[in-house]
């Protein structure tokens, strides 16, 4: 019997960049994000004789071949290894048929892999429900094995990925800090280009440690930033959230740009949008922060009171595609 699940991306405020164990995607540091309400990915998963993936993005079929197909195969193998530690090695068959229906434009810095692998983890949870009732944290481990940031989309609202210690497969998992209703924040996603990025984040993470700035960043997150971000969320202190998240975001991009193969995901358009947004927020005293992941896309995140002004700004970005999302509910049965 097939199962269906739905999920969406998240936007990180303390960014995940670099692993202490590459194959298991065990992160070097904690991270924290807001799970978004939209755009969504729906997966239909069933048992099959061999791994079969059909993927539609915005209604158009995109063949899943080569390294993309291998990534799914590796994910299923890792999920089985993890489930073996829970005493159910055969609950998931080696082969699945997976139908992906994505409403996320590909590779524009909106974490489609986070939505897909959190969705697949949720589908696997449903598939194995007759054998075991997985907790959210256990489901987040399965999501993490496909894409580190996917771990956080298993839960809604404000979600931390706790790095943990050691190399056990379940050492890092997600924890909900607060649900979406705690503090309704809005994310205007401003996408300047639909060009596919050349180096994906999986390859990028693998070289993060080669940056001379990497160790210092990990220490800053451990000793201060993650907790500052949690405190800002708990107290709904937007100015503190803005300060810590922008500090961490620029720090991540400096690490990326100083890796042995430097990665510059930001474009001239990104910098222009950010400059204009900074000028506007200073002039209008607007509670808005901006952040960018592994792509040129700008996320302008604000409280309800700033929505009209940020919307006007976002809609004025003529060559850009625009999405409006808000804090949402994470992966769930569809
Ligand atoms: O989950 P991955 O491997 O696609 O890593 C994504 C990392 C960033 O989006 C750049 C930051 C984050 O924490 O989401």
Fraction of residues in H or I helices? 25-40%
In terms of structural class, how would the helical and strand content be classed? alpha+beta
CATH class descriptor of the largest domain? Alpha Beta
Low-pLDDT stretches are: none
CATH domain topology of the largest domain = Ribosomal Protein S5, domain 2
How does this structure look, described?
- The protein is an alpha+beta fold and 334 residues long.
- The protein is 36% helix and 23% strand.
- It folds into two domains: 3-182, Ribosomal Protein S5, domain 2 (2-Layer Sandwich); 186-326, 2-Layer Sandwich (Alpha-Beta Plaits).
- The protein has helices at 66-85, 112-127, 136-146, 201-206, 214-234, 238-257, 268-284, 307-315, and strands spanning 3-7, 10-14, 19-21, 26-27, 31-35, 41-47, 52-57, 60-61, 96-102, 158-162, 173-178, 186-191, 288-291, 298-302, 321-326, 332-333.
- The strands form four sheets. The protein has a six-stranded mixed beta sheet, covered by helices on one side.
- Strand 3 and strand 4 (26-27) form a beta hairpin.
- Helix 1 packs antiparallel against helix 3 (136-146), helix 2 (112-127) packs across helix 3 and helix 5 runs antiparallel to helix 6.
- The longest helix is centred in the last third of the chain and has 21 residues, at 214-234.
- The radius of gyration is 19 Å and the shape is globular.
- The two termini are 14 Å apart.
- The relative contact order is 0.19.
- The site of (3R)-3-hydroxy-3-methyl-5-(phosphonooxy)pentanoic acid has 16 residues, from helix 2 and helix 4.
């Amino acid at each position: 019997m097939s199962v269906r699940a739905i999920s969406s991306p998240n936007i990180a405020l303390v960014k995940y960049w670099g692993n202490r164990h590459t194959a298991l995607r065990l992160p070097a540091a904690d991270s924290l994000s807001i799970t978004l309400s939209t755009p969504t990915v729906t997966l239909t998963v069933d048992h099959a004789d061999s791994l079969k993936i059909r993927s539609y993005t915005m209604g158009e079929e995109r063949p899943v071949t080569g390294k993309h197909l291998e990534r799914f195969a590796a994910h299923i193998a890792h999920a089985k290894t993890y489930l073996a530690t829970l005493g159910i090695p055969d609950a998931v068959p080696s082969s699945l048929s997976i139908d992906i229906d994505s409403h996320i434009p590909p590779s524009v810095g909106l974490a489609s892999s986070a939505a897909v692998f959190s969705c697949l983890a949720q589908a696997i949870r449903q598939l194995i429900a007759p054998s075991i009732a997985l907790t959210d944290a256990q489901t987040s481990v399965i999501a993490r094995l496909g894409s580190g940031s996917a771990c956080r989309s298993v839960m809604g609202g404000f979600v931390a990925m706790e790095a943990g210690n050691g190399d056990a497969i379940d050492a890092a998992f997600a924890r909900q800090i607060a649900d979406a209703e705690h503090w309704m924040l809005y994310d205007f996603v401003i996408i300047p280009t639909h060009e596919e990025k050349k180096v994906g984040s999986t390859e990028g993470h693998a070289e993060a440690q080669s940056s001379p700035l990497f160790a210092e960043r990990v220490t800053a997150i451990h000793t201060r930033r993650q907790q500052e971000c949690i405190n800002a969320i708990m107290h709904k202190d937007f100015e503190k959230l803005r300060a810590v998240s922008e500090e961490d975001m620029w720090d991540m991009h400096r690490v990326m740009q100083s890796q042995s193969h430097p990665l510059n995901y930001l474009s001239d358009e990104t910098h222009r949008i950010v400059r204009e947004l900074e000028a506007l927020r200073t002039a209008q005293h607007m509670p808005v922060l901006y952040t960018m992941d592994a792509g040129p896309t700008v996320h302008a995140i604000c409280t309800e009171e700033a929505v009209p002004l940020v919307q006007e700004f976002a809609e004025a970005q003529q060559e850009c595609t625009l999405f409006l999302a808000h804090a949402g509910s994470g992966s769930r049965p569809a």
